[in-house]
Amino acid sequence: MYMSDPAQSNEKNHSxxxxxEPIERSNRMDVLKFMIPSLVGILLFMIPLSIQGEITIPVAxxxxxxxxxxxxxxxxxxxxILMLTAVMTAITKVFKPVWILEKPFLKGLFGVSTFWFLAxxxxxxxxxxxxxxxxxxxxxxxxxxxxxxxxxxxxxxAVFLFAGLLLPLLLDFGLLELCGALLTKIIKPIFTLPGRxxxxxxxxxxxxxxxxILLTSKQYEGGFYTKREAAVIGTTFSVVSITFTIVVLTxxxxxxxxxxxxxxxxxxxxxxxxxxxxxxxxxxxxxxxxEHAENHWDEKIPRHTSSFKWGINQAVGKAKNTKWRHxxxxxxxxxxxxx
Length: 339
Hints:
Elements: E1 2-3, E2 15-16, H1 28-46, E3 49-51, E4 54-56, H2 58-69, H3 74-95, H4 98-101, H5 104-110, H6 114-132, H7 137-140, H8 145-166, H9 168-171, H10 175-191, H11 197-207, H12 209-221, H13 227-237, H14 242-251, H15 258-275, E5 296-297, H16 307-321, H17 324-338
Antiparallel strand pairs: 1-2, 1-5, 3-4
């Protein structure tokens, strides 16, 4: 259920559930609207696949295809995007055009602090030097700017393209509501986190840590996590994936020790997730929600209601209230902001 900001003591707390009628009365189309996108999201982000002897996830497979298919144009595209972003940020900073400031998305994209304004200008300048391989070699060489420009940035761009467009399948159709209701009694006392954070964890460990971070960021901005919870999830839950583990083992020719290696990672990860949230600096993070979030999520389950029934009701209600046009718009905006 949603609750008002606890920091605003002069406002009366209120709660709102997505769906309170018995699941038996739910429209079958609403149930399918919850189940199908959620299952597709799980398949895309959490299910490792073996493709030509390599372990990967479908989203990473799509990202690799984009990198291969558009390898020749990605450097040009990246340079243009960085230059356009720098120019638009400068225009917003200096001239403050109304047509940008009155639109929340454009304002959030280009109305940044002085630090990020300078960072974008420098990034665009370095991108041009690297693209043309001009200026000091230490800027554009294969060990510095060239490495970022040719390998890292195209990979991140491709990942964020599909993650931004497809993450709503995990976020907006009730899967997190169901997991939150089912797991909050376990996750909360052990890891001091909401039950819905289990999806962030699974996405990172089974899928990709970068996608887990993006998922957590979206949840924080939506008012589902506090600053402390988002920091804990981002540092202790979104660590290393099975796919990356296999890549590392392949590079050092230790594939035969996968079980021992990954068991060590799991044990170390669990220890970190248990201890780190209870000690500084994570324990000192404020339990405050994102200031621009309209509502704040509370996973309390009503008395005399089972966790499963409440979770299903909430999930179906969430899916019912989700509009596809908003999902598509939000996905595109996420890609532009992160990419």
